Amino acid sequence: MAGEGYEDAEHQNTPLLQSSPHILTGTVWTALAHIITGVIGSGVLSLAWSMAQLGWIAGPLSLLLFAFFTLVSASFICDVHLYSNPSNGIATVNRSYLQAVNTVLGYKNGLVCGFLVYFSIFKTGVVYTITSAVSMRAIRQSNCYHVEGHEAACAYDNKYYLLLFGLVQMIASQIPNIFHTKWLSITAAIMSFTYSFVGMGLGIAQVIGQGEIKGSMSGISTNNPIQKVWLVAQALGDIAFSYTFSLILLEIQSTLKSPPSQKVTMKKASTIAISTTTIFYLCCGASGYAAFGDSTPGNLLTGFGFYEPYWLVDFGNACIVLHLVGGYQIYSHTLFAIVERWYEENFPGSVFARDIQSVKLSLLPEFRLNPLRLCFRTTYVILTMSVGMLFPYFNEVVAFAGSVIFWPLTIYFPVEMYFVQKKVVPWSGKWIILRMYSIFCLLVTIFVLAGSIEGLVVKRFG
Length: 462
Known about the structure:
71% of the residues lie in helices and 3% in strands.
């Protein structure tokens, strides 16, 4: 029977996975660190602004709704890590999101998914590059404002900070694979909690100092209703971006040891991570909106609603940069692995993919350099940096990044894989509910995408 084949396959595949020295050593805590590194990123900085557009009712409800979407998606994706083909009972271990779509839904769906996966990873790299540059610039601005006064003209160009972040990523990208980034994920996860607490603490302190909670039930009011609609769409896009991590889930699940089964551990880690991040998101968004009301900045720690204590603002921004260095690597290594695996399969024995030198730098793991890794990964970093220079608009880029892949990668493919995996009968109650769920999310995505494109066009050309 297929069910029995599935269980047998789990045990049969365990020795195979354990044969790699970098597989099956992870726990719920390392998985949690990887997920939090991937989830809590630049998006958290825009949540106060998002809540300001939506108001005290729709803001928190939207956060909870997207958290629910993400949790459902994570559960569906975890189930297909080990997939048993119903036609022949042969089990396949899917170690990446793209492999899972190819295996479960077929080649054509895999082509569409592949394009979206590559685009999603790339745009995340762009967003992280922009955000890190903005935070580095904000540190310099904060010190300038402290010395010269809050009305001083402390304006600096982003491009130098984009170049600096790109240089760091060129070096960090030579880490061979995701299994060597455990230390990076743990550090990044700690940084994400730290700057979340900084932003939240500054907001609460400001509320206490001013003696009132600002904001309204309907959010920021504008004289132009159409503009209000676009701002709401961008706010939802920022929230959607804040919960995107489905692409790296199976990569993380493949690092987990058993028993218990990798699926059980991953679902537990996903639930803890999403619950934890949602609480942080609600606290950060609410404290920022309560502090500034209609004047809430687009980026809580770089929009300079907070000027003092300047050293704490500097510290928060430094934590953001350290976190996004790790977050960039966690996402990018998924793409690196796909491209380099494809090259090695199609050009076996190629000298271009052979290690040529081992380099050990202080506080960093040993680098095994080879021409393929050096050329491809360096080019990738340069491309993300170049696009960041072309569109350095934080809120609009975050909204676009969140909207363009939210429905296909977080909703559509996981639901379709669930139908196949669980053999859901068409027009059954479960089938109808999940179809309605998918269609609703599609309509939300179209609305958000339109708003984010409008914002980018206005900023770039208006």
